[in-house]
Amino acid sequence: QELWASDMFGFAPEADAWWAESEGPEPRVGAAGIGENTWAHGTIAYGTNEVGHRPHHSTPHDWLGSGGHRRLRSVPEVEVAVAPAVPLAVQWPASLEPDLLACGPGPVAALTTGGFGALVPGHVAGGKAAGSGVDLSLKGLLELGMARGVTWINASLHVVTGSGALATCPGVGPAGGAVHCSPWTSVPKLPLASTTSSGPHAVLLERPAG
User: Fold this and answer.
1) How far is CA 119 from the centre of its chain?
2) pLDDT tens column, 125-135
3) Which residue, of 75, 108, 127, is where some domain finishes?
4) What is the distance of C-alpha 181 from the center of its chain?
5) Least C-beta-crowded within 10 Å: which of 38, 103, 160, 175?
């Protein structure tokens, strides 16, 4: 809710009721002897009964001259334009039904839980042009379990497997192809709730310093 100077200084239409007095000079509507509050109507008519009062103002209300600059401002709201979801013009390899998606520093990898998938070039993934995804195959995952989550770190794909082990798949290039994956032995297995669950899992991987 916006707050105006009127809320602080009493320039509200309801102020006439607050200022009505049971005794004093006429008129008693509004501040005694001053008159009805006409600020909300865009005119200034205060003090019409006072000696030396200038003629009634018929011009529009002066926002700055009347303290409008004291309006209580909040943090301006930033309008965020939400772009609609538009299908990409990409041709997938035949019979590919990906389960996982990993956005890299340019390309996007779409993979099944078995490690097969496609690599979509960055300009296609960004919607700048139509194109085809190139075949991508992650070898060595079946020994660790089906893929449950995948993420990029530099030029390597890191996979959370069904056994809880993390696998690293380095050397993913724009041409795709077969990439060998090996267990990430420097980290322990993740305590997954169930190795039979087919739902995706997530893990936070921090890039090593340097």
Assistant:
1) 27
2) 888 889 999 99
3) 75
4) 35
5) 175
Q: Which residue has the higher pLDDT, 118 or 38?
A: 118
Domain containing 51: what range? 1-75
Indicate if the pLDDT at residue 144 is higher than 80. yes
95 and 56: one domain? no
Tell me the two tokens of residue 14.
């309801």
Q: Measure the N-to-C terminal CA separation of the chain; round to a whole number of Å.
A: 49
Give the whole-angstrom CA distance, residue 181 versus residue 139.
6
Q: Cβ atoms within 10 A of the Cβ of 119, count? A: 24
Total domains in the fold of the chain: 2
**Strand pairing of 134-139 and 177-180?**
parallel
Distance CA 47, CA 66 (A): 15
Q: How far apart are CA 203 and CA 167, in angstroms?
A: 12
CATH of the domain at 163: 2.40.10
Using alpha carbons only, give the angle 94, 100, 106 rounded to the nearest 5 degrees. Answer: 85
In the block, tokens 């200034």 appear at 44
Is pLDDT of 117 > 70?
Answer: yes
> 196 burial class (0-12, 13-18, 19+ CB within 10 angstroms)?
exposed
Rounded CA gap, 63 and 72, in Å?
Answer: 14
Match 């008693």 to its residue by tokens: 28
Look at residue 118 and tell me whether its pLDDT is greater than 90. Answer: yes
